[in-house]
């Protein structure tokens, strides 16, 4: 059954192209369905990728403009004149039937050509689009089509695409990732989108995290500009060592300085300097999918220093328990942290 309005599912490009409501929105700018599709697109990065692909496909098929050369026009006219000449030489007894079949054949060929062109364009488009996700406890090394490198943190998703003219490189991030952006003199720039901010970069190494309405950017080298979606916040340009955190719920921005140990997770470890237990609890919940309950809020403020390797969750819990003198128990799908009795 063909739906006439968007819902929460992720459509395929084919489904969007064949959706009457989507077609009206793209080709007729129908205001009665615009809000519905804009809401659907804003719900997830992959929705935006699918919608843009389908939109370009519809526009290309319906409104592609082409200015032929003089040689092409001459050749086309010659072929057309030759075809007319041959038609005049055909026996007249087939008359109307021949004309009907000719028009039907022409329609079939036009449809086939349009289909082949659309398929070729969509195949090319797919080569410039990449979507990667990680599960709890998993990190992945990704080489993007422009040779930029990304280390994707656990429980994260990255979608990448390059514009049709190759000028703009864009990525959408949910979670955390460490970027080593390849400088491309032919490109206008590289932009990473999160639900609350856009980070524009050129030849830069940086750590970007977006979880629970909080966006954090740490710049290790190069230069980036942060454009917040909140109109009350001004854009910020970061220098190496800058750490900027934005809380979308409180609508507050804070800035500080740190070093490369902030991104030590890329090497599979945490380098902790006077770090509260609450920071490690965030990692257990965000990166390993654990639900942690602490029976005394003061426990969260206990500090720890040193290096914790992330290869084994059991090792992390062992260190927490022994270094901070914490009793760790589990009931069903929840871990409980408490003082030792």
UniProtKB/TrEMBL annotation:
FecR protein domain location: 132-225
Chain ranges passing through the membrane: 106-124
The Protein FecR C-terminal domain, residue ranges: 270-336
InterPro entries on file: FecR, FecR_C, Ferrdict_sens_TM
Entry keywords, A to Z: Membrane, Transmembrane, Transmembrane helix
Gene3D superfamilies from the UniProt entry: 2.60.120.1440, 3.55.50.30
UniProt keyword Transmembrane helix present: yes
GO molecular function: sigma factor antagonist activity
Keyword Transmembrane in annotation: yes
Short name of any one Pfam family annotated for the protein: FecR
Protein name: DUF4974 domain-containing protein
């Amino acid at each position: 059954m063909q739906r006439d309005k968007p819902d929460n599912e992720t459509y395929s490009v084919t489904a969007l192209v064949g959706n009457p409501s989507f077609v009206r929105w793209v080709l007729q700018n129908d205001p009665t369905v615009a809000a519905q599709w804009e809401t659907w697109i804003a719900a997830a990065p992959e929705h935006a990728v699918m919608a843009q692909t389908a939109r370009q496909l519809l526009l290309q098929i319906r409104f592609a403009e082409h200015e032929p050369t003089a040689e092409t026009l001459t050749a086309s006219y010659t072929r057309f004149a030759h075809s007319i000449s041959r038609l005049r030489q055909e026996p007249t007894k087939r008359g109307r039937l021949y004309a009907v079949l000719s028009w039907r054949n022409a329609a079939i060929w036009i449809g086939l050509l349009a289909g082949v062109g659309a398929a070729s364009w969509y195949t090319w488009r797919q080569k410039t689009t990449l979507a990667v996700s990680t599960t709890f406890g998993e990190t992945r090394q990704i080489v993007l089509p422009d040779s930029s490198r990304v280390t994707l943190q656990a429980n994260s998703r990255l979608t990448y695409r390059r514009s049709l003219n190759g000028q703009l490189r864009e990525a959408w991030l949910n979670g955390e990732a460490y970027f080593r952006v390849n400088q491309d003199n032919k490109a206008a720039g590289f932009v990473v989108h999160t639900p609350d901010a856009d980070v524009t970069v050129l030849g830069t190494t940086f750590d970007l995290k977006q979880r629970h309405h909080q966006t954090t950017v740490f710049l290790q080298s190069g230069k980036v500009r942060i454009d917040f979606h909140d109109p009350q916040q001004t854009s910020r340009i970061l220098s190496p060592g800058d750490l900027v955190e934005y809380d979308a719920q409180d609508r507050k921005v804070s800035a500080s300085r740190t070093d490369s140990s902030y991104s030590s997770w890329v090497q599979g470890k945490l380098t902790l300097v006077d770090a509260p237990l609450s920071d490690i609890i965030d990692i257990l919940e965000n990166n390993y999918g654990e639900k942690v309950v602490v029976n005394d809020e003061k426990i969260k403020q206990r500090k720890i220093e040193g290096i914790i390797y992330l290869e084994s969750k059991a090792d992390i819990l062992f260190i927490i328990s022994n270094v901070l003198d914490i009793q760790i128990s589990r009931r069903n799908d929840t871990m409980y942290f408490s003082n030792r009795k």
